[in-house]
Write the structure tokens for this entry.
Amino acid sequence: MTDQGRPTRREHGLQTPADFPPTHASDVHDEREVLLDDDYSDGAQIEARSQWQLFRRKFLRHKLAMGSLVFLVIIGIGAFFAEQLAPYGYEEIDVLRANTAPTFEGLHFFGTDQLGRDYFSRVLYGTRTSLQVAVVVALLSTAIGTAVGAAAGFYRGWVDSVLMRLTDLVLILPGLAVLLVAAALFGQGSPLRIALILALLFWVSLARVVRGVFLSLREMEYVQAARASGASDLRIMFRHMLPNTIGPIIVNLTLVLASAILVEATLAFLGFGVNPPIPALGRLISDGRSSMQSMWWLIIMPGVTLVSIALAINFVGDGLRDGLDPTQQET
Amino acid sequence: MTEPLLSIRDLVTEFATPDGVVHAVDGVSYDVYPGETLGVVGESGSGKSVTVMSILGLIPQPPGRVANGEVLLEGRDLLTLSEREMRLVRGKEIAMIFQDPMTSLNPVLTVGDQLSEAIVTHDADIGEDAARERVVGLLELVGVPNADDRFDQYPHEYSGGMRQRAMIAMAIANQPKVLIADEPTTALDVTIQAQVLEVLQKAQDETNAGTILITHDLGVIAEMADRVVVMYGGRVVESGTAEEIFHSPKHPYTLGLLSSLTRPNVDLERLEPIPGQPPSLINLPSGCSFHPRCHLGQGRAVCRSEVPPLLELGVGRRSACHFHEEMSQEVARVEQETGAHFDGEL
Amino acid sequence: MSTTATAASEQDLHARSPLGTEILRVESLTKHFPIRGGLFRRQVGAVQAVDDVSFAVRAGETVGLVGESGCGKSTTGRCIVRLLDPTDGQIYFKGVDLAGLTSRRMRELRREIQIMFQDPYASLNPRISVNEIIGEPLRIFGRYRGEHKGKERVAELMRLVGLNPEHGNRFPHEFSGGQRQRIGVARALALDPQLIILDEPVSALDVSIQAQVINLLDELQERLGLAYLFIAHDLSVVRHLCDRVAVMYLGKIVEFGTKHEIFDNPTHPYTQALLSAVPITDPRMRGKRERIMLEGDVPSPSNPPSGCRFRTRCWKAEEICATEVPELTDRFGHGHPSACHFAEPRAVLRVDPS
């Protein structure tokens, strides 16, 4: 340990690859053998699978989720191309064919209403409105909830206190009453405004979930390791914590999607939703209520559509949750 | 020796997985005699815990299944018993001590209540006072101070070491014939471990139970076990007395474990680890499952093609190695490499 | 203290020191975690996790920090890499007080001290590939792109720790525990540090894999001239890897010495009890050793005993132990410091089996 024999930094540097030949079963006597595990020589031992492949495999095996996804895609395409696909316009009145029960004749699959408007077309347009609102609500509330939860969980302390008190405040609001008042005052029957109002109420559950996950991830050794190697707060958040929160976020997104559809329908049902004549599923159910006895299809058709969409979204959510958990090994 | 208390014969336990059937235990046989401590050593995935879970009928079915074998407790095959009959065996004739005393006690019941319950379950006629008296006696036996006060405390008021003592008390509450301890001290600090091992020894002396001590810690085995069974990849690869196993191993895996060991009282020149990774049960190597990591085999054909039988080398001395005769040279080589002396002071 | 007087120049800080010269000095390190209670979450007490701990690490050596759970060894390690902010005390890296640095310079120095963790499953981000995990420190310090040839450097690091660079695009869950610890070693080595804090790096591994990682650490130290601060509860591993050992109990160092001073000639009763409790892997020694059984459990660090913290479990305790905190000094010429008023050598491990 004298000064003379002291290695310079260059000499200390890592050896060139040639200094580390791969080991073989026969050269276990080699001094370097301990440095090299045998996996080095038989790379086939571990089957390489990317995260995406793993996810896809697990999700594909979830039959209910797969079926629901297919169903949702069909519904989604149908709603998106409502103008092209619907046999009639949603306001097209044909008094001669009013009150027709579902029939293939004239393509009135879902029948017609009291004014003779094609009910299939109205349900299709209604689905489009409801989905539009729900998607905006889901995306917006997810963005708000993630941001609030992440900030609270990452910085803790007073940031956490302030944000969580705000969350509590939104949470204890009597939801429906506030919604009705807000919808009446600011909604003005516009789908976008309704969506905004819903999003401002829907972010809280996600904020709590994300905060919880962040609090526990904060203590994970790989987050500590990143911190120890000098990573910035943003890098830690976006590279190490958010990707590991993606599961709960997406699952929550599906839950919000489903309940936004239902709540929007409730609003519409109570007359605070999207303005007529744009059809929305809730409005259709509400309007059909009066003639429910004689014309069952007026309430059954939009009702079944509504419930099956909500259910399918929930099933997809289940599948996503199972598929997205990297720690859950297949059993 | 006397008749074995518990005999495991050709036990096979398999699990169904998406990638096929996995033999977690593959033809395991060993005996436990009254009053002795049998150490079962092996790394994770060796099947040491699954074996005892199979004995107790605690394998989750499905995906698990005991596919073959016999578990004879004093001549009676436990594998043929109904679930109801098994419940009478568990906790009464065979008792178990788990690794984590934190999760094996119910947090909302007092420790005393849980111990009394263990007694009442198998002896319904005992009165409440008599049960309490026995529990306090047991707690004193395992060295819980102020046992009478401690009776009414909840698990969270016990420290880790005290909880494990309480678990030992519960295990011996019904004077079991067989005591199974699965990694009983792994979660504990070394000074607490020493206390608990002492208590375990005392509990065994008290009941004269045959004890199966499962652990990956060779130090604990050396301190406690009379005989040792070494498991690898779901099979028994070697068995013998503790002295035979530690001083003249007859299987290269056992030797590999010993040459991987750091020792508190000896300076070693270097360690000689077993190369590679423990095998995946899904894809167990052909022939001797240890052959890809084996220094003695050197890739000889027979090691790759034939599963070595577990040969009887002497009374209670068994080895599953095709080349067990070459083990003394192998031991000498390792002694040279590591600076350890297997036959002398370790 | 005097060591700060000649703060080394920037270049010297990043150059390797001659083996044997001091590179890290911890002085009176104290870390208290506040306990908050009541409606307004006021501080009602403190967990005294680390209390007045001082030691030094020299270039190229391994210092062991041993003790049972809750003794403060991990907290000490985390304070050194500044994952935790010390309540009090100084940490000098080559004479520079890390606490007094601007965050920019702190970052620069940070790469000279890296940490490696215990849990091979929790210490690697499951969502990013091994290449990215090992390359991350390089990216953070702008040493990945362009001339730095980060990709090649990552492959070189993987080879260095015995992993196949072709597996770099795989994810952590595809590796076994031992391989994952190798990945952890490679990450710690990425910035070519001078000191690595090893926080129980082999405790979670099977014996045979443990030995592989121990040998790897040993060889890397020799090749790269690294210094290690080895935090562990397993005394046998400490004996094998460490040059000098500090024994901790309830937030304090109770004894400090070379490996042989600690293992063959312990003078503190706690060290003696600890060593006598370690299982010896030789059945012939069974029952032939002297066993010092400690009574009771470790007291709570939020309310440690007065005077000597070990006195409540010590068979030698007298009045002075309750009133006077024993200093960590060599008081009777035993050759190494011991924090006991009645320090006295006692060989608890060396026993003849015959």
